[in-house]
Design a protein that fits this description.
The chain has 222 residues and is an alpha/beta fold. Helices cover 36% and strands 14% of the residues. It has one domain.
Length: 222
């Protein structure tokens, strides 16, 4: 996060509108699972506790679907360090690979060490009660860095996995891909992949908030 974004985030929290929102939703128990940083940003926006392990990390879209479609199994699996990938990318990388399941590689790009990442992952996994909690899935495909919408083979595989997801979900895209529950957020001409930039000064709303997450998460009076 740039110094300007940090200043905006700090001042926005003093904004009466966001103070009200954060106090209003502070005790809401929501499980938001996302393949990138959006989950953590939503928890921060609405002042809610991190009741999700998918905080400050990113996962390949297809592997994220594997994770969600066998969520009960992957949440119980041990997170193993991938030392070669960690050295290659310059941040901690772990993998979940339960018996008879496909590997899911997790990039902890906002953590200093794998030990720190693993501790946080395990603590937050334990906060999820699959029999009681309402699970919300956010899959962001607006970032071209790790997703190519023109790769038809992978796109078809992704569609097949998305259809299997039984939880409430939204798929954020920059152009229509014919996916279930997709929502289009057009690319900004100057920031083609910057879905996280703030919409305006003194606001905690980012470009991905063009989708009504307050309604989606059934917060407050919704």
């Amino acid at each position: 996060m740039s110094w300007l974004a940090k200043i905006n985030n700090f001042l926005a929290e003093l904004n009466p509108y966001w103070l009200y929102k954060r106090l209003k939703y502070k005790k809401e128990h929501k499980v938001i699972l996302a393949r990138d940083c959006i989950a953590g940003m939503l928890y921060d926006q609405y002042g809610m506790k991190f009741n999700s392990p998918t905080i400050n990390l990113f996962i390949n879209p297809l592997e994220f679907c594997y994770f969600i479609n066998d969520l009960d199994i992957y949440l119980k699996a041990e997170l193993i360090e991938e030392k070669l990938l960690s050295e290659k990318f310059g941040w901690p990388v772990g993998v979940l690979q339960p018996n008879n399941c496909k590997p899911v590689y997790i990039n902890f790009n906002h953590y200093k060490t794998f030990k720190e990442a693993k501790i946080k992952w395990e603590i937050r996994c334990k906060r999820i009660e699959l029999t009681k909690d309402t699970i919300y899935i956010v899959i962001n495909l607006t970032n071209d860095v790790d997703f190519n919408p023109h790769d038809k083979i992978n796109l078809n595989k992704l569609k097949q996995e998305l259809i299997k997801i039984k939880y409430k979900k939204v798929i954020l895209v920059s152009e229509s891909l014919g996916l279930p529950n997709e929502f289009i957020i057009r690319k900004h001409k100057n920031w083609p992949s910057r879905y996280v930039i703030y919409q305006r000064f003194l606001s905690k709303k980012r470009r991905f908030n063009k989708f009504d997450f307050e309604y989606f998460l059934n917060l407050g009076s919704y």
